[in-house]
Amino acid sequence: MAEKSRVFQRYQWLIDLIQRSGGITFEEIARAWARSSINAMPGEPLPLRTFHRHKNDIEEVFGITIKCHKSTNKYFIENEDEVESGGVQDWMLSTIAVDNMLNESRDLRDRIQFENIPGGREHLATIIQAMREGRALAMTYRSFRSESASEAVLKPYFLKVFEQRWYVIGPTDAHPKEPHTYALDRIRSLELTDTKFELPKKFSPAEYFSNTYGIFHSDEKPEIIRLKVKRFLSLYLDSLPLHRTQKRIDEESTDEYVIYQLYMTPTIDLVNFLCSRGSAIEVLESASLRAQVAEEVARMYSQYCYKLSPKS
């Protein structure tokens, strides 16, 4: 495990070096490795054979293609746009980068705190294998709303991460026509089967949640949503948009608040997010979403409100 971590550390170092350079020769890479703090043999340059092995492994593991300009002999990342756009590559690189920093800062371990992330990651390898080979999974699952576990045969279409929790999405023998969402930490057992399946040609994982926020899918048409957000919270929404269609309406904003417009389908996850921000967000449109939020706020108020005792 330690050796594997060191190998990934070298992958991350090499990718980062090439990204930052914008183009770099092998000789420059070799000299940079000789000076690197992660080099187990300080002063020793990177062998050409090792470099090519790392380059091939990086493409296989991360999907990041490193090419060389014939005219300049400089190496560059061919699919830079894919890497910068986020997704699996960005998540994997970020995870490795953080792991590298933590390994180098073990003396600060008690001063670095993390969220308690639910389990379920032990199922990732099995699910990914099933997706790659087009094989269904025999799953025992217990939802949060159920008192007992149930068994199902799942066709894993794709995986999704939301709020530190992994989900697998796909149809089951009980719901064969529509994909359903299952939290990995609620899976009690998971085994590969010999039953084969194919991802429908017209099905797009990217489009499945494209109109919503969170992990709930909806076939309802998107609608215009307008939010009135206090200035301090607008900085948060600017850096981490709720949805790909989010845009600021600066001509309607003031020094106290910012108006945002989105085009999406409201779901319970969106309602929960809006309620979690309290009075810092007000739904202006749509009327139906405003009503949903108002109903949830009323239910919350009924739980916490109390009658003042009459004055004596």
What do you see in this structure?
This protein has 312 residues and is an alpha+beta fold. Helix content is 37%, strand content 22%. The chain has helices at residues 2-21, 26-35, 48-62, 80-84, 88-103, 124-133, 205-208, 231-239, 268-276, 287-304; strands spanning 24-25, 66-68, 74-77, 135-141, 150-154, 158-162, 165-170, 180-183, 187-196, 223-230, 247-248, 257-264, 281-285. The strands form four sheets. A four-stranded antiparallel beta sheet has the order 11-12-10-13. A hairpin with a 2-residue loop joins strand 6 and strand 7. Helix 1 crosses helix 3 (48-62). The chain is globular and about 70 Å long. The mean pLDDT is 85.
Outline the fold blueprint.
Layout: H1 2-21, E1 24-25, H2 26-35, H3 48-62, E2 66-68, E3 74-77, H4 80-84, H5 88-103, H6 124-133, E4 135-141, E5 150-154, E6 158-162, E7 165-170, E8 180-183, E9 187-196, H7 205-208, E10 223-230, H8 231-239, E11 247-248, E12 257-264, H9 268-276, E13 281-285, H10 287-304
Antiparallel strand pairs: 1-3, 2-3, 4-5, 4-9, 6-7, 7-8, 10-12, 10-13, 11-12
Helix pairs in contact: 1-3, 1-5, 9-10
